[in-house]
Design brief:
Elements lengths: L1 H23 L3 H8 L3 H8 L14 H7 L4 H7 L3 H6 L2 H10 L9 E2 L2 E2 L8
Antiparallel strand pairs: 1-2
């Protein structure tokens, strides 16, 4: 039981740090206005799927709905920073985005990240 509580606490703290980073950023209003979507909705609906802890699991339909409201090119240019990348599981974030149908071109840059190729299915 302690392990489950610790995982929940870690996930909650991660989301709070991400939210704090985004709220304190000078770019939040610009991102919200120019990139579409709601950062707070994205954190609420998708945060659990990009946590550094736990398994990689498919995102909920609600998470995908929120993510599809964003202009991914705009988000990659203005919101994805080294600080945000330190707080999330990048492989999970890429998995979630692709699972939701967002177009992430292999080899392109999203903030400090180079998007990897899609693994071949066996």
């Amino acid at each position: 039981m302690a392990s489950g509580r610790r995982s929940w606490l870690t996930s909650t703290m991660t989301l709070l740090v991400i939210a704090g980073t985004l709220i304190c950023s000078n770019n939040v209003m610009m991102v919200s206005g120019q990139c579409g979507g709601s950062v707070s909705d994205a954190i609420a609906q998708c945060g659990q799927y990009v946590s550094k802890t736990g398994p990689t699991i498919p995102p909920s339909p609600e998470c995908c709905t929120v993510l599809k409201q964003f202009n991914i090119v705009c988000v990659c240019k203005t919101l994805v920073t080294k600080d945000v990348v330190k707080l999330i599981s990048v492989p999970k974030a890429i998995y979630v985005a692709r699972h939701c149908g967002l177009k992430l071109k292999s080899g392109s840059k999203c903030g400090p990240i180079t998007i990897p190729s899609i693994p071949a299915k066996h």
